[in-house]
Amino acid sequence: MKTILVTCAIIHFDEKILAVQRSATMKLPLKWEFAGGKIEAGETEEACVKREVLEELNIHIAVKKRLSPVSHAYPDFKIQLIPYTADYVSGELKLREHADYKLAHKEELLSLDWAEADVPIVKELLEL
Ligand SMILES: Nc1nc2c([nH]c(=O)n2[C@H]2C[C@H](O)[C@@H](COP(=O)(O)OP(=O)(O)OP(=O)(O)O)O2)c(=O)[nH]1
C-alpha cells in the first residue's frame, strides 16, 4: 500500500491550541485532527503546512518546530503524518472544509475523538 505524506499544524493562539473536526463527508468522518494535508510534488513540508492552513482555515501561521512524524496504517491507506508547532499570525478563522473547531489548553485535547494517527502527536505535545 502506498504511503501518503501529510503535514499538520499544531497552531497556538496564545496559550490555546486549535483542533479541527473532519466533516461527515470526509475520510475519517467527524474525527478531530490538526489542520494540514498532503504534500504536493516539489513542495517543502513547511510550505505545505502553511498552504493547507491558509486554504482550510483562512489564516496565516508562523511555522515553528517539527515534532516526531507518525506512521500509521488505516484499513485502506497508510500515512506518514508530520506535525509542526506553529503560531497564529493573522486572518479571520473560517472553516472551509471542517465541521467544527475547538481552541483548548493542551491538557483538554486528549478527551477529543482524534484520528488514530494523531494520538501519539497529542501525547508528545503534552510532554513538551
Ligand atoms: N490534515 C490532516 N490529515 C490527517 C490528520 N490525521 C490523519 O490521519 N489525517 C489523514 C486524513 C486524510 O486521509 C489525510 C490528509 O489528507 P487531506 O486532508 O489532504 O485529504 P482529504 O481528507 O481531502 O482526503 P482525500 O479524499 O483527498 O484522500 O491524512 C491530521 O491531523 N491532519
UniProtKB/TrEMBL annotation:
<dbReference type="GO" id="GO:0008413">
    <property type="term" value="F:8-oxo-7,8-dihydroguanosine triphosphate pyrophosphatase activity"/>
</dbReference>
<keyword id="KW-0227">DNA damage</keyword>
<dbReference type="GO" id="GO:0044715">
    <property type="term" value="F:8-oxo-dGDP phosphatase activity"/>
</dbReference>
<keyword id="KW-0235">DNA replication</keyword>
<keyword id="KW-0460">Magnesium</keyword>
<dbReference type="InterPro" id="IPR000086">
    <property type="entry name" value="NUDIX_hydrolase_dom"/>
</dbReference>
<keyword id="KW-0234">DNA repair</keyword>
<dbReference type="InterPro" id="IPR020476">
    <property type="entry name" value="Nudix_hydrolase"/>
</dbReference>
<comment type="similarity">
    <text>Belongs to the Nudix hydrolase family.</text>
</comment>
<dbReference type="InterPro" id="IPR020084">
    <property type="entry name" value="NUDIX_hydrolase_CS"/>
</dbReference>
<dbReference type="GO" id="GO:0044716">
    <property type="term" value="F:8-oxo-GDP phosphatase activity"/>
</dbReference>
<dbReference type="InterPro" id="IPR015797">
    <property type="entry name" value="NUDIX_hydrolase-like_dom_sf"/>
</dbReference>
<feature type="domain" description="Nudix hydrolase">
    <location>
        <begin position="1"/>
        <end position="127"/>
    </location>
</feature>
<dbReference type="GO" id="GO:0006260">
    <property type="term" value="P:DNA replication"/>
</dbReference>
<dbReference type="GO" id="GO:0035539">
    <property type="term" value="F:8-oxo-7,8-dihydrodeoxyguanosine triphosphate pyrophosphatase activity"/>
</dbReference>
<keyword id="KW-0378">Hydrolase</keyword>
<dbReference type="GO" id="GO:0006281">
    <property type="term" value="P:DNA repair"/>
</dbReference>
<dbReference type="InterPro" id="IPR047127">
    <property type="entry name" value="MutT-like"/>
</dbReference>
<keyword id="KW-0515">Mutator protein</keyword>
<protein>
    <recommendedName>
        <fullName>8-oxo-dGTP diphosphatase</fullName>
        <ecNumber>3.6.1.55</ecNumber>
    </recommendedName>
</protein>
<keyword id="KW-0479">Metal-binding</keyword>
<dbReference type="Pfam" id="PF00293">
    <property type="entry name" value="NUDIX"/>
</dbReference>
<dbReference type="GO" id="GO:0046872">
    <property type="term" value="F:metal ion binding"/>
</dbReference>
